[in-house]
TrEMBL record, chains A, B:
One of its GO terms (biological process) is response to antibiotic. Gene3D superfamilies: Tetracycline Repressor, domain 2 (1.10.357.10). Residues 38-57 bind DNA. This is TetR/AcrR family transcriptional regulator. One of its GO terms (molecular function) is DNA-binding transcription factor activity. Residues 15-75 form the HTH tetR-type domain. Keywords: DNA-binding, Repressor, Transcription, Transcription regulation. It comes from the Bacteria.
Length: 226, 226
DNA sequence: ACCTGAACACCGTTCAAGT
DNA sequence: ACCTGAACACCGTTCAAGT
């Protein structure tokens, strides 16, 4: 009858649990990078023997999937169906940007591991719902969802620097302009200043606007009511 | 005077070189997956001691960057500036899709490693060039490039299944429909058939069309003449 | 300049033993 | 049911030695 606190021994180490293991992993990754993640490090962090982890997680791969899942669970997907579908679509895509900002160093794991919880279906459901509300037919709605997802993921990949690939090095290597022959890369050289200046928010919204605008202009298969 | 074949000893093992090492790595990855890649495996593949690799590559990270570079080098970027810019833009984005198909299992490495060769600048230069030809001003051209890149990368991420995340599991888990409560995911359930049917080419072109169409409708800062 | 084997510190995971 | 230490096979990389 004394409630659920049945003992007052000083700070009894909390029980080991999959959730706690995943959280420790996420913390470690954000602090030291994905390469620093190892079963042994996680165990140490939790003050526990390595093999104890295997009581809650079958292997390292499963732990990584747990990390991906945890990040995706952080998507803030509140929605107001009474809003115009364009607004709802923007909110959805922006949610990805937000979460990528919250867990920058986990992104490479999120992008390379599947999520087999229903959690992973929430964004899909949301996108399909608003395409439906916009009056698109089924097959078109599916394609719209995929286009939005592609942009959401790709924009993050670019911005978070997960992909340091391609144009990003233009920014980070601004000092080595001299070595770029203007003959081979005339436009890159000419626009070096714009390329180096950073306004990721505007860049992101620009691309998002393009997509929404194009969707807006698309012929609808059905009436647009609801 | 006997040309460049100076000896006829039976197949003298070819010299070890960075290029050969990278190629072996790419082959190994495509055959057995990125997880199977190790310095030791690569060395074995080349019939060489592990430490020999370190004469041509400073460490594993550098080898992975070499792999990314090799894949990006495979982008087929032939271009005809006399074509309308829309056509050129489509060709550019499609080149990414092509290369992702050629090296599916290397993609996760390409997406997570920087490329500091000028090779990585070719797509950027191309995108900026065609935006210029379309009559857009500098800052807008840069944003257009970024939007195209984001879509090119994101679409690949989705399709290649690098991201098994999100809607992809809808397809792979079609058998578990029953377990999905239609209450929480009504649209996903209703469109399960469309979601499971695979036509990645059309999906890809749909999103690409959206972007090009939107760009077409955008006001130009300059005349459109070349 | 390039190759090599031995060694070191670190992995993920199996197994057998404990409670 | 959960925890643990020892052991195994495998890593990346340093070092000292060879040519």
């Amino acid at each position: 009858m004394n409630g659920d606190v049945t003992s007052d021994t000083p700070a009894p180490r909390p029980v080991l649990t999959r959730a706690r293991i995943v959280q420790a992993a996420v913390g470690l990754i954000e602090r030291e990078g994905a390469d620093a993640l190892s079963m042994r490090r996680v165990a140490a962090e939790l003050g526990v023997a390595v093999m104890s982890l295997y009581n809650h997680v079958p292997n390292k791969g499963a732990l990584l999937e747990g990390v991906a899942e945890h990040v995706i669970a952080g998507l803030e997907l509140e929605d107001d169906p009474s809003e115009p579908w364009q607004t709802r679509a923007r909110a959805l895509v922006r949610a990805f940007r937000k979460v990528a900002h919250d867990y920058p160093r986990c992104m490479t794991i999120v992008l390379t591991h599947k999520i087999d919880t229903q959690l992973g279906l929430r964004p899909a459901e949301r996108a399909l719902a608003l395409a439906d509300a916009a009056g698109f037919d089924g097959p078109t709605s599916v394609r719209i969802m995929r286009a939005l997802m592609a942009y959401a993921l790709g924009a993050q990949l670019r911005e978070t620097g997960v992909v340091k690939t391609l144009d990003n090095l233009v920014e980070t290597q601004a000092e080595s302009w001299a070595k770029l022959d203007a003959a081979e890369f005339p436009h890159v050289v000419a626009l070096s200043e714009e390329l180096a200046s950073h306004d990721p928010e505007t860049d992101f919204e620009f691309g998002l606007d393009l997509l929404i605008t194009a969707l807006d202009a698309l012929p609808r298969g059905r009436s647009q009511s609801r």
